[in-house]
Amino acid sequence: MSSGGIIRPNQRYRIQGEFYTLLSRLGYGSFGSVWTSRTENGDFAAVKVFDLSRSGSRIRLNERQNSFRNEIKMLDRMRNETEHIVTMYTFEYNPRISMAFIAMELADESLIDRVKNLHQRHLRSRMLDRFDFISANDRQNIWIQLVNIILTLHRYGVVHCDLKPANLLFFGPLLKVIDFGIAQDEFTGYNRRQRIGGTRPYSAPECFSDRTPVTSKADIWSVGAILYFLTYGKRPIYETAQAPDGVSQTRSRLVQDILQHCLQRNPSRRPDHQWLAQHPLTIPPGIF
Predict the structure, then answer these.
(1) How far apart are CA 33 and CA 151, in angstroms?
(2) Torsion over CA of 81, 82, 84 and 88, rounded to 10 degrees?
(3) How many CB atoms lie within 10 A of CB 105?
(4) Other Cβ atoms within 10 Å of 120 Cβ, number
(5) What is the C-alpha to C-alpha distance for residues 246 and 55, in angstroms, rounded to an integer?
(6) Is 176 annotated as a binding residue?
(7) Nearest to 270 by CA among 236, 241, 231, 250
(8) CB–CB of 213/206 below 8 Å?
(9) CB within 8 A of 23, min separation 6: which ones?
(10) Which segments constitute the Protein kinase domain (predicted)?
(11) CA-based nearest residue to 94, from 102, 86, 104
């Protein structure tokens, strides 16, 4: 078994008695890196690796430990929601090498890559709705799954706080959310020490401030920002429904309506989950 230190391909780690060989890095963030891995039986999985040594990251050790514990707690809470939440296989903290691991199901494609492919297909099509980044039908199909994801989070009292294209993956036709490292309980109440963080501009403004409580309305902002990405192929850098510079505003009145409602800096002015669930864009065939 590999010791702590620099993580490289072909290193092997034991997680709850089973060896996983890291093959290639899929991504990394503030709290850890994610790797394609293979078990001794030849099965593939995604393994998230947390370096919990004192010199392992610029992020404070207690924050990295909390991220590991928090992700396990949230994934275990929603372990039966296999259609919308990534499935966790197992996890382990190894104090001898100061590393922790979470083994999960391995995705087929990221939302980012799927949207790039859909964009190329859209450009080749003979359809007349080539004003937006992907077709209206493809956008709506993804949007409906996004709404189902935040309805699931809300049902379990989870605020993700970092919903973004990089944290949404396709497993066959199913879109699932990953990375619950900074997620929080919806009903914990407000305190001045609330967890702060996320990814601008996909995370809501209040995630970066200790002046406004972080509630489930934070995820409402995020799905609006993701819909913006699906529509324009770019991040909402102005944190409004305004189209990117040099890009025409979408002709979809339904998309405009959602963007204008969700991308409100004041959380109290954003709609609730049921408003999104009952919106015509969420209920086929409401495309325009």
Answers:
(1) 28
(2) 90
(3) 16
(4) 11
(5) 45
(6) no
(7) 241
(8) yes
(9) 9, 10, 35, 36, 37, 38
(10) 20-282
(11) 102
* pLDDT, tens digit (0-9, with 9 covering 90-100), for 86-127: 999 999 999 999 999 999 999 999 999 999 999 999 998 866
- Where is 222: in which H helix or E strand? helix 217-232
Q: Is the pLDDT of residue 1 over 90?
A: no
Burial class (CB in 10 A: 0-12, 13-18, 19+), 269: exposed
Neighbours of 211 (CB within 10 A): 7
Crossing angle of helices 217-232/136-155, nearest 10°?
170
In the chain, the amino acid numbered 40 is E
**Domains of the chain and any CATH numbers:** 12-104 (3.30.200.20), 109-277 (1.10.510.10)
Q: Tokens in use for 185?
A: 């309980």
Helical ranges in 89-194 per DSSP H: 111-124, 136-155
Judge whether 67 and 173 are in contact, CB under 8 Å: no
Residue type, 208: F
- What lies within 8 Å, CB to CB, of 200 at 6+ separation is 208, 239
Tallying the residues shown for the chain, one arrives at 288
Tell me the pLDDT tens digit for each residue of 6-53. Answer: 788 999 999 999 999 999 999 987 788 999 999 999 999 999 999 898
State the Cα–Cα distance between residues 3 and 25, nearest whole angstrom: 18
**How many Å apart are CA 9 and CA 3, to the nearest integer?**
14
Q: Which helix (H) or strand (E) holds 23?
A: strand 18-28
Which residue has 């529509």 as its token pair? 231
